[in-house]
Design a protein that fits this description.
The structure holds three protein chains of three kinds.
Chain A (H helix, E strand, L loop, with lengths): L2 H27 L22 E6 L14 H7 L7 E3 L5 E3 L2 E6 L5 E6 L13 H12 L14 E8 L2 E6 L6 H4 L18 H4 L10 E7 L3 E6 L13 E6 L3 H9 L5 E4 L5 H4 L5 E6 L4 E6 L9 H10 L2 H9 L3 E3 L8 H4 L13 H10 L6 E8 L5 H13 L3 E8 L1 H9 L5 E6 L5 H9 L14 H12 L3 H18 L2 E7 L1 E6 L2 E2 L16 E2 L2
Parallel strand pairs in A: 1-10, 15-16, 15-17
Antiparallel strand pairs in A: 2-3, 4-5, 5-7, 6-7, 8-9, 9-10, 11-19, 12-19, 13-17, 13-18, 14-18, 20-21
Helix pairs in contact in A: 8-11, 9-12, 14-15, 15-16
Chain B lengths: L1 H28 L4 H6 L5 H10 L6 H13 L13 H36 L4 H15 L2 H16 L14 H35 L2 H8 L4 H39 L4 H11 L2 H29 L7
Chain C lengths: L4 H7 L7 H11 L1 H18 L36 H37 L1 H15 L3 H12 L3 H11 L1 H16 L2 H8 L4 H37 L11 H8 L8 H30 L1
Helix pairs in contact in C: 2-3, 3-4, 3-12, 4-5, 4-7, 4-8, 4-10, 4-12, 5-8, 6-7, 8-10, 10-11, 10-12, 11-12
The chains are: A alpha+beta, B mainly alpha, C mainly alpha.
């Protein structure tokens, strides 16, 4: 396949996104039943049923518990097994999943959610409102230790109205509540599931979700096998009998396995690996837009990054395009202040974002003004195993050398990095953001002042925080967009972070694999609609 | 013999105990813990505290140690913090994979290395000796992971073949098992055969230089009978000793090979557990590695004494 | 037991004939040793004067020239940000070899010293140190390296520290065994009887006799530590980018192995050739000690 055709494909996908966004606007107004075909990708006419799909993955989930594991590698896979009340529409709109419809009170504080009838858990029990209330009450209680607890903090009570109706009451209006009840953290499990002391451990051996697939086995450093949930509520789904995910420790063995047809489908974590298989017959290469984001974070606790002039100088010293080309080739999109997948919906138009064009002289002047005319030395932290960071780091080093900054590179392991990050001691670091399908979920926790937000970068910006609060409480899309545009201007002006680029999702599959669509989050929803040719 | 054994075992147990403390402390000194990993960029302070308490990480470190070592003494290595599986089971199945790699590599290394070493030693200083020594030194000098990488890519591009991804034990399917292990064992085996051959050669040469062997040669005793009467006997003990040393070396060297070839062995388990800060797994796996090294050392000792009763307790 | 004079002494009888003849005889008698020495001399030149071999900078990136195959302009091709792989391998020699030499020197000095003291004085100190060394020896070197760099964080000085711990026990044991043997020698008794202090005996006699053993061991372990260093670099635990280091180049290269195998082949060969030369020399030194 040639790159042009990927470009076309990408264009087609983007148009689809825009279309589904229009859909989103109508949802916000009230409630409507959505056709199940919109979930997990598009249905396929006359799809062949059956077969085992072999998928190769570079990153192995540390565990499969959607309540207690925040790892992105876990979310990507468990969306096929567990379900929340809403589905993350490709353009950032919530679509009812286990919910059927919902109503919001005029003050925006009470959500009454009607549940889908006839949903059966993997253990054969039927789902009702008790299960839903139990599951979300469990996750929102901080004592139960869920990383998602913070997102659910606005909920004050969850009540069962009738066996198929649940009522959520909030402490303040929150436009992203439906999206919070999505598939990222938590899921609906049978009421009382966690009463058993061993329940968390059991999630790695057998699943208790409502999703299209159920867990068969999960072997450390080897594979995860899932099989069709025979009693899945959406009849005819999924098409495949089984999916076997093999976990490979490096891209060399992954590419070799792909060339020799040991795997049918590989989501490449490094899109430039396409070059290494583009000459292989019978492989289909596809590009998809994404919600991920590679960024340079500037923690104000580290001198001289406490000076906004220095941060601005760094922003002016950066050539994002070159950094992207060095790290992932052409397989991505340079960003302003919004991830590529949501730029059209929520982004500040790129030509209005300040400090985006490289200007060495202006940067030098700013540094001199800040008292660093003789140059300054900074240490950049990168994470071991994040392939894009090494080439990006050496390129950034060369770029910043031009404005008089001597950049030292310090590679740490992920555990150390998370530790620094969580304690707001990140300094100057590359960051690989997890996808968030909504601007409030994307920005609030990261940039709102403590204690409501985590303000990892010690930005401490009052004006930005009040905009974030306003954006959270506003549900009218047009108003919301205006508020977030204002926020992004401040972000680009005072530079707590420099969003560099979004990396496209690139998948390589054998020709037998049909109808796989990569969701912009990078989660593998699309596998529920994938079929294998006979 | 009995008292020696008791003394030896006592020393090993003491070492194992000290090693367990070291392991316990070291793994906790690595910054960041499992809670941070589970929470990622999300989570709040309350939730974090709750999880920390759940794992007992809020206890003083000596309490944590006593709880753990108490369980270990009862034969319970605990439960993985990320996988929820019993550590005994995880480490056990990983150990079997590593042990198989080790034993097969040892077998290959012995079958290739010992004859090469004997031939080289018998032809000391001649062309054949030089050629074999050249092989030995290259084998010893080549980085194992590099050889593995080259083999993987070379075989893939020349034969359009690569090993199956899913590990299968030899008793389930021998052919699949062989297909999976062929390349990793070949890369490890090259190095170990070289080491073996080099070692055997040195022993053969030094035996040949012994006075009584020289005399026998001078007297015109046929080479074959010198070989069986003197050399083989003298080389046997070092061969046994060296087997143990190589097995320990393989246990250590297998870490990288397992990572390269995606084998679910002890080394890869250890690396991934260190990465996720899954303390019970790190501790359990390291304890098994240390214990294995000790048992092998003990076996070498005993074998040594069985073959050569002259050796006294040192 | 051998003395420092031993190594010199081997060449001593050949002092009379001309230098060239002497050299010729040496090469004929020990071609391996000679080859090893030549290679090491060459590597030493590369290490100290990398600028003699290439005009390219090992740091200068050129994204437009990324991943080019070997050519007249770039003998070993270019890497993913367009740096010259030949320049990186050449400059990498200094980084890699000095890390290995330095860490092994630390283990030799520290391990040797502790071993001497432990073996010479014996007693409870010997027991404690011996037990500690046993514990350290029971960990596979790479695992030890992974944990130590994990605790300290990956940085060059921590890598050196981790690597120096790996073989410390080996030097300890050799020095201890040597000291134990020397302590019972008659000359030590004699020295005591003429009133020399224990410290002086240890320094003047025992250490001097144990030093060649340590030196030989140093050469024998050098190729091994080189491989461990490369392996840790391969796992991403080595030096920090953009510093050129053979293991680190291999680590970047493995991701491009199908498309740009030159990024992996050449640094691997560099490790191989260096280890090859070191083994040749180490073996020859060992043989001399054994012959004594």
């Amino acid at each position: 396949m040639h790159m042009q055709s990927h470009g076309l494909l990408k264009g087609r996908r983007l148009r689809r996104l825009a279309a589904s966004l229009l859909l989103a606007a109508s949802f916000a107004a009230g409630s409507a039943a959505v056709q199940a075909e919109d979930l997990y990708g598009s249905a396929m006419e006359g799809a062949n049923r059956g077969g085992t799909l072999n998928v190769g993955l570079l990153v192995e989930p540390p565990g499969l518990d959607p309540f207690h594991q925040a790892a992105e590698a876990r979310i990507r896979l468990t969306v096929l097994i567990y379900q929340g009340l809403f589905y993350e529409g490709a353009g950032g709109e919530p679509i009812p999943l286990l919910a059927e419809s919902w109503e919001v009170s005029d003050d925006g504080l009470v959500y009454t959610i009607k549940l889908r009838d006839g949903v059966v858990f993997h253990n054969g029990e039927t789902m009702d409102a008790e299960d839903v209330a139990y599951s979300y009450n469990y996750i929102r209680d901080p004592e139960n230790g869920s990383p998602g607890a913070g997102d659910f903090g606005v909920i004050t009570s969850i009540e069962v109205v009738d066996p198929l109706t649940v009522r959520f009451t909030l402490s303040s209006p929150n436009a992203s509540l439906p999206m919070t009840l999505g598939n990222k953290y938590g899921a609906v499990v049978p009421a009382g599931y966690f009463d058993d002391e061993n329940a968390k451990n059991r999630m790695n051996a057998e699943s208790v979700g409502t999703g299209p697939f159920k867990l068969v086995e999960f072997n450390p450093n080897q594979n995860m096998l899932i099989a069709r949930h025979e009693e899945y509520w959406d009849e005819g789904m999924p098409y495949l009998d089984e999916i076997n995910f093999s976990f490979l420790p490096n891209s060399a063995s992954m590419l070799v396995a792909l060339r020799n047809q040991r795997v049918d489908l590989v989501p490449l974590s490094r899109p430039q690996d396409v070059q290494q298989v583009s000459d292989v017959e019978g492989l289909v290469i596809e590009r998809w837009p994404s919600l991920n984001q590679k960024a340079l974070d500037l923690g104000a606790e580290l001198e001289p990054l406490d000076d906004p002039r220095v941060r601005k100088a760094i922003a002016l010293g950066i050539d994002k395009e070159e950094i992207m080309r060095a790290s992932i080739g052409d397989f991505g999109e340079v960003l302003g202040t919004m991830v590529a997948g949501m730029q059209d919906t929520w982004g500040l138009p790129l030509d209005e974002v300040p400090n985006q064009t490289r200007d060495v002289e202006a940067a030098k002047a700013l540094l001199a003004e800040a008292g660093h005319g003789d140059g300054v030395s900074l240490t950049l932290t990168t994470i071991n195993g994040y392939d894009w960071m090494d080439p990006a780091a050496v390129t950034l080093r060369e770029q910043l050398a031009d404005i008089g900054i001597d950049l030292q590179i310090q590679r740490v392991d992920l555990g150390v990095w998370i530790n620094n990050f969580r304690s707001s001691q990140m300094g100057l670091t590359f960051n690989d953001w997890a996808p968030q399908p909504d601007p409030n979920l994307l920005f609030f926790r990261h940039f709102h002042m403590k204690p409501e937000g985590a303000d990892f970068r010690n930005w401490n910006n009052e004006e930005a925080s009040s905009l974030l609060r306003e954006g959270r409480a506003t549900s009218d899309p047009a108003k919301r967009k205006e508020i977030y545009a204002e926020f992004q201007k401040i972000l680009a002006e005072t530079v707590p972070t420099v969003m560099l680029f979004s990396q496209d999702h690139v998948t390589v599959s054998s020709e037998r694999v049909k109808n796989f669509e990569q969701h912009p989050t990078g989660w593998y929803f699309g596998l529920a609609r994938t079929a294998l040719e006979q | 013999m009995g008292s020696y054994l008791i003394k030896r075992l006592g020393a090993s147990l003491l070492t194992a105990f000290l090693a367990s403390i070291l392991v316990f402390l070291l793994v906790r000194l690595v910054p960041g813990d499992v809670v941070g990993q589970m929470m990622g960029q999300a989570g709040g302070a309350d939730a974090e505290r709750a999880v920390r308490a759940f794992f007992g990480l809020d206890q003083p470190i000596y309490v944590q140690y006593l709880v753990w070592i108490g369980d270990v003494l009862r034969g319970d290595l605990g439960t993985s913090w990320t996988r929820g599986l019993p550590v005994t089971q995880m480490v056990g199945s990983a150990f079997l994979v590593t042990l198989e790699i080790g034993l097969v590599t040892l077998f290959i290394a012995t079958v290739i290395g010992v004859p090469l070493g004997i031939v080289a030693g018998m032809h000391e200083g001649r062309t054949l000796d030089n050629v074999i020594q050249g092989f030995n030194i290259i084998g010893l000098a080549a980085p194992v992971f590099w050889v593995g990488l080259m083999l993987l890519v070379g075989v893939s591009s020349l034969l359009a073949w690569s090993p199956p991804l899913r590990f299968v034990g030899p008793f389930k399917s021998l052919s699949d098992n062989i297909a999976i292990l062929a390349l990793p064992v070949a890369s490890l085996g090259l190095l170990q055969a070289a080491a073996y051959s080099q070692f055997v050669r040195q022993n053969v040469v030094s035996t040949l230089h012994q006075e009584y062997v020289r005399t026998a040669i001078a007297k015109g005793v046929p080479v074959r009978s010198i070989f069986f009467k003197h050399i083989l006997r003298n080389v046997l003990i070092p061969i046994v000793t060296f087997m143990g040393l190589i097995l320990i070396q393989i246990l250590g060297g297998v870490v990288i090979i397992e990572s390269l070839f995606a084998l679910p062995g002890l080394g890869r388990l250890l690396l991934s557990a260190i990465e996720t800060r899954d303390y019970p797994v790190v501790q359990g796996a390291l304890l098994v590695v240390v214990a294995t090294a000790m048992v092998v050392n003990l076996l070498i000792d005993l074998a040594y004494r069985a073959i050569d009763p002259r050796i006294r307790v040192s | 037991m051998t003395g420092p004079a031993a190594i010199v002494a081997v060449n001593a009888p050949a002092a009379k004939p001309g230098r060239i003849a002497r050299l010729g005889r040496f090469v004929r008698r020990e071609p391996g040793y000679a080859l090893g020495l030549v290679l090491i001399a060459f590597l030493a030149v590369v290490t100290f004067f990398p600028g003699l071999f290439t005009d390219e900078s090992p740091f200068a990136i050129s994204v437009a020239n990324a991943l080019q195959a070997p050519s007249a302009a770039h003998w070993f091709g270019t890497d993913e940000v367009g740096r010259d792989v030949f320049a990186r391998v050449v400059y990498g020699a200094r980084v890699t070899l000095s890390i290995c030499a330095g860490s092994l020197l630390i283990s030799a000095l520290l391990g040797g010293l502790l071993g001497l003291i432990s073996g010479y004085f014996g007693g409870w100190l010997d027991q404690v140190l011996g037990r500690f060394v046993d514990v350290m020896l029971s960990f596979p070197p790479i695992i030890l390296g992974v944990i130590i760099t994990g605790v300290l964080g990956p940085a060059t000085q921590n890598l050196i520290l981790a690597l120096s711990i790996v073989y410390l026990p080996v030097f300890f044991r050799i020095a201890r065994a040597g000291a134990l043997a020397e302590a019972n020698q008659t000359y030590v008794e004699a020295a005591r009887s003429i009133g020399l202090t224990e410290g002086a005996i240890l320094r003047r006699h025992v250490a001097r006799n144990v030093a060649p053993l340590i030196l030989t061991q140093y050469m024998i372990l050098f190729p091994l530590i080189l491989q461990i260093q490369a392996a840790l670099g391969f796992l991403g635990l080595g030096v920090q980018p953009p510093t050129p280091d053979w293991g680190a180049i291999l680590q970047q290269g493995k991701d491009y192995i199908l498309f740009a195998p030159w990024m992996s082949i050449f640094p691997g060969l560099a490790v191989l050739v260096t280890a090859f030369a070191l083994i040749l020399v180490g073996r020859a030194l060992q043989a001399r000690i054994n012959r004594r």
